[in-house]
Amino acid sequence: MTKTHSPTRLKAAAAALLTGLVALLFSTFLFTPVANAAAAPPDVATAVAAWRSGDPLFVLSGSPLSSEQQSGVREALKGSKSKIYAVALPDGSVTEAEAGQFITRTIAALDKAGRSAATVAVLDGMSLFAGSSAIPSGAPAILANLATQHNGDVVTGMQDFVNRVNLVAGGESRKAQRPESMANPGAGSAAIWYGLLGVAVVGGGGLWFISRRMKRQREAREAAELAAVKRTVEEDVTKFGEEITALDLDARMLPAAGTDHDWQHALDSYEKAKTELAATKRPDELRTVTATLEDGRYALAVVKAKMNQEPVPERLAPCFFNPQHGPSVRNVRWAPPGGALRDVPACAMDAQAIERGFDPQMREVVLPNGQRAPYWNAGPAYQPYASGYYGGFDGGSLLTGMLVGTMLGSAFGGWGMGGYGAGYADGLAADGGGGDWGGGGGDWGGGDFGGGDFGGGDW
Fold it and tell me: What stretches pass through the bilayer (predicted)?
């Protein structure tokens, strides 16, 4: 006798399945961030010890990578000609600033362990951050961004990233920046199909909504960061204009021989900075404005010296503590809170304060959350701001030395990585101090795997 299922039982089964899928979708949407809130990056020494044992991928408990994905990533890392090490963390373990700090400390630890040329990748869930002492500063952000933009799963994405790093290390920078994927075409195909199947089961519409929401949040954060840094530059432009106005009357009353050219240069720089600021659309463009301000402030310092019948000042970097103070007069030994001593350029006022045991007059900025912090501790969004002021001195090495151990230290390529360009951890492009790596983007920037309409979301 053939058994049959009643329509009622079929409807009940379908309803149960639908309920389960909805519950899964909403638990992903509502509760995953809370569950991961307590996660944290591993101890640097622990990660380095794991890598030295021969495993280039250190996986922290709770990472979303499956055993198959972990094996695929390991194979890609082991097959790299240039040394690349990675950590896989639970989703939401680190912010972009924390990822940068971890990469900075890790590269320093690798250097002390005898691995002075290496690339470090951090997989925070499916978000990729990267930094390197083996390839030009700024390059890791571009490569990580390209890998995450053009690959739908983490295995092919990491294969793509590894191949691009090797191309740069081998002197083929332009080839490494090609927009198409450079992963093994056959690798990761099974993972892609499993991912597509999972999307179909859970509900493509729901995941699309979540990913679009993540993309809007990221864009909103970047817009807020740009607005905050732009406001800071506006204050610097205004301050420079006020100094010109204050000196204008003295210049007319006490004309000094030979100041006409420098005075006009200062005026032109002020007008140029205003024009450049008004035309700014991207964060990396702000470095052009602050570079113009640095040039104009030096011209103004020359005018003041000639009016006071003093020697023309040497062309030195602006005061590190507050670039509004104009050119520095000498270097002083200084350490940020909890950091190591380093030489930084300072104006006469701040140099005297440091040498007498007092705090210098810091250039504080307002963060998107409303809090105030010194610009050098305000996160990677302020990289273009600092780069414009200081990146042109000593080929950018001055900037590296000043910022090692600060919030911007990793972004500016510490430990011999050279000059750096602007950027964000979502991988907007980068500038390695010229050459092939022009644009915006940080040295430990990256992106999220999952292209197309998902715009950087998770699988």
Answer: 191-211
